[in-house]
Specification:
Blueprint (H helix, E strand, L loop, with lengths): L1 H35 L16 H18 L3 H4 L19 H40 L7 H10 L8 H52 L2 H6 L2 H44 L1 H48 L1 H6 L3 H53 L5 H43 L15 H4 L3 E10 L12 E11 L4 E6 L5 H8 L7 E6 L2 E2 L5 H6 L1 E4 L10 H6 L7 H10 L3 H5 L18 H15 L3 E5 L7 H14 L4 E5 L11 E6 L2 E6 L1 H7 L2 H13 L1
Parallel strand pairs: 3-8, 3-9, 6-7, 7-8
Antiparallel strand pairs: 1-2, 1-4, 4-5, 9-10
Helix pairs in contact: 1-12, 2-8, 2-12, 4-6, 4-8, 4-12, 6-8, 8-9, 8-12, 9-11, 9-12, 11-12, 17-19
Length: 699
């Protein structure tokens, strides 16, 4: 009877253990797969397969660059701090030895905490096994009252006996081990977060600086919303990829090997064979399905980019939408993009569900097989119930890295897709480059005389249209000189190349043929930065930052004092207007300066050009949005400011430039006339015709 009771008790205990672990397993794997299956937004602009040569080389470059952030050195970090030759460089400035050592120490601490956490975690299943075996060793045919009486008759306290003390110690050890492992993991994340955030800051700044170095052609063809998404998602992917590189890929491989070795040592080759088979099938299935579903992620990212770009474009043109009552049209365009995104997202989610189901099925099959083998050993008397607990514990220990193999692979693939577009952006080379041996331009040393010699230029078309549309030629042998210290006006019909000349002088474009010189030096042989420092510009279309008026004026000289800002505003005849606002110079102008009128924006633009105090002043229709009275005041101020400067003024209103030192008349991409107002009138040519037409219009 006693033997039967003992067998029944062991059977009930075994069923409870199996039920507990089965429940815990399915809950854990469901949770882990849910986490692993969360799709992150990515950026992909190509429909090529992920295994293309370009993508493989990009992955290698991403890994190399990110590794330099994990283990930096002063030499590697200082490479290419200010170059704009389009070559790959994820650092924007030198990194000191102290900072590099600090990052290395943090990485070392993080790895130490990771190893410590793994060693502690691996002990948990063994502690659980010993606890179950210790509790199972109590004679099941002896009642608890009899055990208590036996202890009392011998003067022993039940709670202090060896029989009770060891299980309590094992339970405490189990709890402490789990808490310690969890604490080490969170501490590791906190320590490594500094490394990841430092990388995000450096990479983000590098790409941002590179975008600003790209030429005007790129920015005319770009979509602001899409570019913003590229930078945002690329930066967000850096942290995950770094963590995966340091804490998942290599450590997971090691953990799988350790658990498999322990399984072989404790239970034999059959058990370890099942484990290896499960790992192999799980990994192969995950890689295969993930490769297949990547195309859905790319479509999803491309369509999300389109939707984001349409939103930004529509909101930036809010007034235009209202003027033409086209809200429904804009909503319809956005809905079409969202519809395509929805279709791609559903495909991605369906394929993700298939992936998760297959992973669960493979792991469940492996769990069932290894539990069956262990139960056979128990029935044969070659293993204990504690061994069954150990098998489950080790398999659960293996389920975490197995799930990481799946989820990390998925997420790293998506992160690489996110960063591909950012790296492709880094690969975009600016078409306007400084000579490697460029000379620093010094106006005091070189002078400010400007010469345009036989310039030919046509605006480049987008790449997709190059074979279909030829470039529209703007300049056709443009030649003229601007004397140092003179005020020169450029006039002519719209589309004649007036604004293009100023953009080329500022090196937004380079001429197709011909040469521009400043102070006798070819502009290509001078440092672009030094040339731009010497030129102040009043553009035709003034766009302001969504900041205060004071900030927008100070953009001409970020180190200017408040008194200097106010003085520039007074010279631009906008000080009184600013002071009429409730917040004065702290008034925020709104996105693109839309809270200000056209004339107010133009005067802010003039104020910041005055504040720059540059020896060369370029004015592109500086008074086009002003009334006649203010126009004359502004022109007089500009002439006063530019008295000792070399000034070029583009104007449609010929009455504002009649007292300029020289007037250049453009027509059909060429300089057809030049001289003073009186000289040009006496010729009776193109300038005289323009003046007559303007007088007729004004009348």
């Amino acid at each position: 009877m006693t033997s039967i009771r003992a067998c029944l008790l062991r059977k009930r205990r075994l069923n409870r253990v199996l039920h507990t672990y089965q429940s815990r397993f399915f809950n854990s794997t469901s949770s882990l797969n849910h986490v692993g299956g969360m799709d992150a937004n990515g950026v992909g602009t190509s429909t090529d397969t992920f295994t293309s040569k370009w993508e493989k080389s990009t992955q290698i470059r991403i890994a190399k660059n990110l590794f330099r952030h994990v283990w930096p050195s002063p030499t590697a970090a200082s490479a290419l701090p200010d170059r704009d030759d389009g070559k790959d460089n994820m650092y924007t400035s030198t990194i000191t030895k102290e900072h590099a050592d600090k990052i290395k120490r943090r990485v070392g601490y993080s790895l130490g905490l990771m190893v410590g956490g793994k060693l502690v975690t691996i002990q948990v299943p063994f502690l659980f096994k010993n606890l179950v075996d210790e509790l199972g060793s109590v004679q099941t045919d002896v009642s608890s009252i009899e055990i208590a009486n036996t202890f009392a008759s011998n003067g022993m306290d039940l709670t202090s006996g060896t029989m009770a003390g060891l299980p309590v110690a094992l339970v405490l050890g189990y709890g402490i081990s789990r808490a310690t492992a969890s604490g080490m993991q969170e501490l590791r994340n906190a320590v490594f977060a500094h490394v990841a955030q430092d990388a995000i800051r450096r990479v983000g700044r590098s790409v941002f600086e590179h975008v600003h170095k790209l030429d005007m052609t790129y920015h005319l063809n770009r979509n602001t919303g899409t570019l913003s998404r590229i930078l945002d998602r690329g930066n967000r992917s850096i942290s995950f990829t770094l963590n995966a590189m340091v804490f998942n890929i290599v450590p997971t491989t090691i953990e799988v090997g350790v658990v498999t070795g322990l399984m072989a040592y404790e239970f034999g080759a059959m058990h370890s064979g099942v484990v290896l088979g499960t790992i192999g099938a799980y990994t192969a299935f995950t890689v295969g399905i993930t490769q297949w579903r990547t195309q859905f992620r790319r479509d999803m990212n491309r369509l999300e980019n389109e939707a984001s770009g349409k939103v930004v474009d529509s909101l930036l043109n809010y007034e235009t939408v209202k003027y033409f009552n086209n809200e429904h049209h804009e909503s319809q365009r956005y809905a079409e993009s969202l519809g395509g995104y929805q279709k791609a997202a559903l495909q991605a989610q369906t394929s993700l569900s298939l992936l998760n189901f297959g992973q669960n099925a493979i792991f469940s099959a492996g769990l069932t097989a290894i539990m069956y083998l262990t139960c056979q050993d128990i029935m044969a008397g070659q293993a204990t119930v504690g061994d069954l607990v150990l098998v489950n514990g080790l398999l659960f220990q293996l389920s975490i890295p197995l799930n990481f193999i799946g989820s990390v692979y998925r997420e790293v693939k998506q992160a690489l897709i996110d960063m591909e577009a950012m790296f492709k952006l880094k690969d975009t080379k600016p078409k306007v480059l400084s000579d490697p041996d460029a000379v620093e331009y010094d106006p005091n040393l070189h002078g400010t005389a400007i010469s345009f010699s036989d310039l030919e230029f046509g605006y480049p078309m987008p790449e997709a249209q190059v074979d279909k549309v030829t470039n529209r030629q703007i300049l056709k042998g443009m030649t003229f000189d601007v004397r140092e210290g003179s005020t020169t006006a450029i006039v002519g019909s719209s589309g004649g190349g007036k604004s293009t000349l100023l953009r080329m002088l500022y090196r937004f474009y380079d001429p197709d043929t011909g040469k521009i010189t400043i102070g006798g030096h070819g502009i290509n042989s001078l440092s672009t930065e030094s040339v731009r420092k010497a030129i102040a510009v009043v553009p035709q279309d003034t766009v302001l930052f969504n900041e205060s008026i004071g900030y927008n004026i100070s953009y001409g000289d970020l180190h200017a004092s408040k008194d200097e800002i106010i003085e520039a505003a007074k010279n631009a005849h906008i000080h009184d207007t600013i002071m009429s606002f409730p917040d004065g110079y702290d008034t925020v102008v709104g996105e693109r300066g839309l809270k200000l009128s056209g004339g107010e924006k133009q005067r802010v633009s003039i104020a910041r050009a005055i504040l720059k105090k540059a020896p060369i002043l370029l004015c592109d229709e500086p008074t086009s949005s002003l009334d006649s009275h203010t126009e004359m005041d502004i022109m007089n101020n500009l002439k006063e400011v530019g008295k000792n400067n070399t000034t070029i003024i583009i104007a449609h209103r010929l009455s504002t430039i009649q007292d300029c030192d020289e007037i250049i008349v453009l027509h059909d991409g060429k300089a057809v006339e030049r001289g003073t107002h009186e000289e040009l009138l006496s010729k009776g040519g193109r300038y005289n015709d323009l003046l007559k037409m303007q007088k007729q219009w004004d009348a």
